[in-house]
Amino acid sequence: MFGMTPLTRKQQQVWNFIAETQQKYGIAPSIREIKEHFDFGSTRSAFDYVEILEKKGYLKREPRTARALRAVDPAAPPARRTVQIPVYGSIPAGVPEERTQAPGDYLTLDLETLGIPKSSPRSSRGPIF
What mean pLDDT is predicted for residues 23-50? Predict the structure, then answer.
Protein backbone atom coordinates (compact mmCIF):
# COMPACT_ATOMS: atom_id res chain seq x y z
CA MET A 1 0.00 0.00 0.00
CA PHE A 2 2.70 2.50 -0.99
CA GLY A 3 3.68 3.63 2.51
CA MET A 4 0.17 4.26 3.80
CA THR A 5 -0.54 3.15 7.36
CA PRO A 6 -2.82 0.10 7.40
CA LEU A 7 -6.38 0.52 8.62
CA THR A 8 -8.06 -1.27 11.49
CA ARG A 9 -11.13 -3.35 10.61
CA LYS A 10 -13.52 -0.59 11.73
CA GLN A 11 -11.54 2.15 9.93
CA GLN A 12 -11.71 0.04 6.75
CA GLN A 13 -15.50 -0.30 7.18
CA VAL A 14 -15.89 3.47 7.58
CA TRP A 15 -13.65 4.11 4.54
CA ASN A 16 -15.63 1.58 2.47
CA PHE A 17 -18.91 3.28 3.42
CA ILE A 18 -17.56 6.71 2.46
CA ALA A 19 -16.10 5.45 -0.85
CA GLU A 20 -19.24 3.51 -1.80
CA THR A 21 -21.53 6.43 -0.94
CA GLN A 22 -19.30 8.78 -2.93
CA GLN A 23 -19.35 6.46 -5.94
CA LYS A 24 -23.10 5.82 -5.77
CA TYR A 25 -24.30 9.39 -5.15
CA GLY A 26 -21.38 11.51 -6.34
CA ILE A 27 -20.85 13.01 -2.89
CA ALA A 28 -19.46 11.71 0.39
CA PRO A 29 -21.76 11.10 3.34
CA SER A 30 -22.04 13.70 6.07
CA ILE A 31 -20.61 13.09 9.54
CA ARG A 32 -24.19 12.59 10.78
CA GLU A 33 -24.86 9.98 8.07
CA ILE A 34 -21.67 8.12 9.05
CA LYS A 35 -22.78 8.24 12.71
CA GLU A 36 -26.22 6.86 11.85
CA HIS A 37 -24.93 4.16 9.50
CA PHE A 38 -22.56 2.75 12.15
CA ASP A 39 -24.88 3.53 15.09
CA PHE A 40 -22.17 5.51 16.88
CA GLY A 41 -23.20 7.15 20.15
CA SER A 42 -22.18 10.62 18.94
CA THR A 43 -21.12 12.52 15.86
CA ARG A 44 -17.75 12.96 17.59
CA SER A 45 -17.02 9.24 17.11
CA ALA A 46 -17.74 9.55 13.37
CA PHE A 47 -15.62 12.70 13.18
CA ASP A 48 -12.72 10.92 14.92
CA TYR A 49 -12.79 8.10 12.34
CA VAL A 50 -12.83 10.63 9.49
CA GLU A 51 -9.94 12.53 11.06
CA ILE A 52 -7.86 9.34 11.43
CA LEU A 53 -8.60 8.31 7.82
CA GLU A 54 -7.53 11.77 6.68
CA LYS A 55 -4.28 11.63 8.69
CA LYS A 56 -3.49 8.18 7.27
CA GLY A 57 -4.01 9.51 3.73
CA TYR A 58 -7.20 7.59 2.86
CA LEU A 59 -9.39 10.72 2.74
CA LYS A 60 -8.85 14.20 1.33
CA ARG A 61 -10.88 17.20 2.39
CA GLU A 62 -11.71 19.91 -0.15
CA PRO A 63 -11.36 23.36 1.46
CA ARG A 64 -14.45 25.52 1.99
CA THR A 65 -16.84 22.93 0.56
CA ALA A 66 -19.87 21.19 2.04
CA ARG A 67 -19.51 17.39 2.08
CA ALA A 68 -15.88 17.97 1.28
CA LEU A 69 -14.59 14.44 1.89
CA ARG A 70 -13.08 12.52 -1.00
CA ALA A 71 -12.03 8.89 -0.63
CA VAL A 72 -8.52 8.21 -1.91
CA ASP A 73 -7.79 4.81 -3.44
CA PRO A 74 -4.57 3.72 -1.75
CA ALA A 75 -3.67 1.44 -4.68
CA ALA A 76 -4.08 4.15 -7.33
CA PRO A 77 -1.01 6.07 -8.48
CA PRO A 78 -1.04 9.77 -7.55
CA ALA A 79 -2.91 12.00 -9.98
CA ARG A 80 -0.73 13.99 -12.36
CA ARG A 81 -1.39 17.58 -13.38
CA THR A 82 -2.12 17.77 -17.10
CA VAL A 83 -3.03 20.31 -19.74
CA GLN A 84 -4.86 19.78 -23.04
CA ILE A 85 -3.38 21.42 -26.13
CA PRO A 86 -5.47 21.69 -29.32
CA VAL A 87 -4.16 20.05 -32.50
CA TYR A 88 -5.16 21.69 -35.78
CA GLY A 89 -5.39 19.73 -39.04
CA SER A 90 -3.71 22.35 -41.19
CA ILE A 91 -2.46 25.88 -40.84
CA PRO A 92 -2.30 27.97 -44.02
CA ALA A 93 1.07 29.34 -45.11
CA GLY A 94 2.01 31.82 -47.81
CA VAL A 95 -0.42 34.52 -48.95
CA PRO A 96 -2.67 35.58 -46.06
CA GLU A 97 -6.09 34.07 -46.38
CA GLU A 98 -9.08 34.43 -44.06
CA ARG A 99 -9.81 31.03 -42.63
CA THR A 100 -11.20 29.70 -39.40
CA GLN A 101 -9.52 26.82 -37.70
CA ALA A 102 -11.16 24.34 -35.38
CA PRO A 103 -9.16 21.91 -33.31
CA GLY A 104 -9.37 18.40 -34.69
CA ASP A 105 -8.08 16.76 -31.54
CA TYR A 106 -6.24 17.47 -28.31
CA LEU A 107 -2.94 16.33 -26.86
CA THR A 108 -2.88 15.77 -23.11
CA LEU A 109 0.52 16.56 -21.63
CA ASP A 110 1.79 16.08 -18.11
CA LEU A 111 2.91 19.46 -16.73
CA GLU A 112 5.98 17.93 -15.09
CA THR A 113 7.03 16.58 -18.50
CA LEU A 114 6.84 20.15 -19.77
CA GLY A 115 9.18 21.17 -16.95
CA ILE A 116 6.53 22.98 -14.91
CA PRO A 117 6.96 21.88 -11.28
CA LYS A 118 4.14 21.82 -8.75
CA SER A 119 5.62 24.77 -6.89
CA SER A 120 5.65 26.94 -10.01
CA PRO A 121 4.64 30.56 -9.30
CA ARG A 122 2.42 30.36 -12.36
CA SER A 123 0.26 27.64 -10.84
CA SER A 124 -1.00 30.04 -8.15
CA ARG A 125 -2.17 32.57 -10.74
CA GLY A 126 -4.57 30.29 -12.57
CA PRO A 127 -4.34 28.48 -15.91
CA ILE A 128 -1.02 28.45 -17.71
CA PHE A 129 -2.47 28.55 -21.20
Answer: 93
